[in-house]
Design a protein that fits this description.
alpha+beta, 3-stranded antiparallel beta sheet, binds zinc ion
């Protein structure tokens, strides 16, 4: 389990009292907040990859416009563990080629 990063997360207390979807979405929002003020003109986005047994296997957030999106970084973080896992993303994944390839395709491939 990768709980070390959670120490700074405002959602930690929610883990024991709310459903897991709400918990992981809140954690995705926390990750997104790490990009606050740096991603313009893009939005801040966070992504958490959670395995079938409820373990976080990947985390990512959008750092800066032109750099990889949150989903792409979370998938890299998760590696082969992304297969069969669930992605919690704070924004609908993009489906277009811009300065980076579409996240929907990366999520499907994983
Ligand atoms: Zn994207």
């Amino acid at each position: 389990m990768r709980y070390t990063l959670f120490k700074a997360c405002i959602c930690f207390a929610a883990a024991v009292c709310e459903n897991f979807d709400g918990y992981f979405m809140r954690h995705a929002l926390y990750l997104a907040s790490k990009g606050l003020g740096r991603t313009r003109p893009n939005p801040c986005v966070g992504c958490v990859i959670v395995s079938v047994n409820g373990t976080i296997v990947g985390e990512g957030w959008h750092h800066k416009a032109g750099e990889p999106h949150a989903e792409a970084l979370a998938l890299i973080d998760a590696g082969s563990q992304a297969n069969g896992s669930t992605a919690y993303v704070s924004l609908e994944p993009c489906n277009h080629f811009g300065r980076t390839p579409p996240c929907t395709q990366a999520l499907i491939r994983s």
